[in-house]
Amino acid sequence: MSSPPSPTRCGTEAVGEARAAGRRRGFLGHRQPFPAVRGAKDLDLLKSVDPKLEQVVSFGWLSILAKPLFLVVNWFHKSFIHNFGWSIVLVTIIINVALFPLRFSNMKSMRKMQALKPQLDTINAKYKKLSLTDPRKATSRRRRWRSTSRTA
Predict the structure, then answer these.
(1) Residue 58 burial (CB < 10 Å; 0-12/13-18/19+)?
(2) What is the pLDDT along the chain (152 residues), one digit of tens a residue?
(3) What is the CA radius of gyration of the chain?
(4) At what angle do helices 84-126 and 63-76 cross, to 10 degrees?
(5) Which of 29, 7, 21, 8 is nearest to 49 (CA)?
(6) How many Cβ atoms from other residues are within 10 Å of residue 45's Cβ?
(7) Is 25 left (phi over 0), alpha (psi -120 to 50) or beta?
(8) Calpha distance 48→45 (Å, rounded)
(9) Which residues, in sequence order, are bridge partners of residue 25?
(10) DSSP per residue, 135-150
(11) How far apart are CA 150 and CA 131, in angstroms?
(12) Exposed/middle/buried for 76, CB within 10 Å: 0-12, 13-18, 19+?
């Protein structure tokens, strides 16, 4: 009986071992009617064994964001940098540069709100005792407002 696929193997050797795993005996001597791959969840390797195996990798409930980010990081890793750490740093920098205009406009509006804060505080202090959720007070305010607006 031959050994199961090694988790340290990668590339074509692991694919060949995974294909041969379907003809081997499993853990308790049962026949494995399917290819088995042990090791890292490499999407390219899983797809080369069987296209359906790509669905085995779960990206969680944020997969709509996680999978494209993973694919971009993986592309940078394979094409340019060959280091996942630096690939993640590069993708983070690219995302921050792309979102800078939004962050800048948000920062400008926060500065405007800071300039208006003293005026808002004086308005809040003036109307602090008025409750907008009490219907009786709201009705009495409306009556007082109507009576003052008619006489003026």
Answers:
(1) exposed
(2) 445 544 444 455 555 555 554 455 555 566 666 666 666 677 888 888 888 888 888 888 998 999 999 999 999 999 998 999 999 999 999 999 999 999 999 999 999 999 999 999 998 888 777 766 666 666 777 777 777 766 55
(3) 32
(4) 140
(5) 21
(6) 19
(7) beta
(8) 5
(9) 31
(10) HHHHHHHHHHHHHHHH
(11) 24
(12) buried
77 contacts: CB under 8 Å, gap ≥ 6: 83, 84, 87
CB 24 within 8 A of CB 4: yes
| Residue 3 identity | S
Q: Which residues contact 5 (CB under 8 A, 6 or more apart)?
A: 14, 17, 18, 21, 36, 37, 38, 39
Q: Looking at the chain, how many residues does it have? A: 152
CA-to-CA distance for 43 and 109, rounded, in angstroms? 43
Q: Is the dihedral of CA 136, 141, 146, 148 positive or negative?
A: positive
